[in-house]
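Annual report, structural modelling task.

Input specification for the zinc ion complex:
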Amino acid sequence: MRDTLVLNASFEPLSTVTLNRAVVLVLQDKAVVEQAHPGLRVRAAAVDIPVPRVIRLCRYVRVPFRRRAPWSRRGVLIRDQHRCAYCGRRATTVDHVVPRSRGGADSWLNTVASCAEDNHRKADRTPEQAGMPLLREPFEPTPADAMLLTLGQSERDALPGWLARAAA
Ligand SMILES: [Zn+2]
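The model returned the following structure:
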């Protein structure tokens, strides 16, 4: 079972929790179900509620600091919508703009989605050295966007339109 997305009372994505935790929050009246898996119910002793896909906290939680979006190869591909940063075709790999062999980091600003061909062609060079300019600059997703990025594709596709747009 997929994790459940937790929204703040302000509808801003906050985190993901296990289904069990989500159900507990709903049963304790700390959250309401914003979207449920169609046709699925949680049934236990005295419990019968829809399986939540998205819940929203009833009380606004002040977030003292926003954790930065954790970097991941999958996240980079999703951020770049699986489009190669060098040619715009479908990307299946992640390229380090400054190669790791030259001290380039695993970071949002140093990685882009790339087709396997361009990744191979660029090899151990910077875009300038390889004569392969970036079609767009890499950027760091907001923590809220990153939260949505952690959901699977099918989960993101199923989100309400007003939420899914943030992760497009
Ligand atoms: Zn390419």
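The chain has a mean pLDDT of 84.
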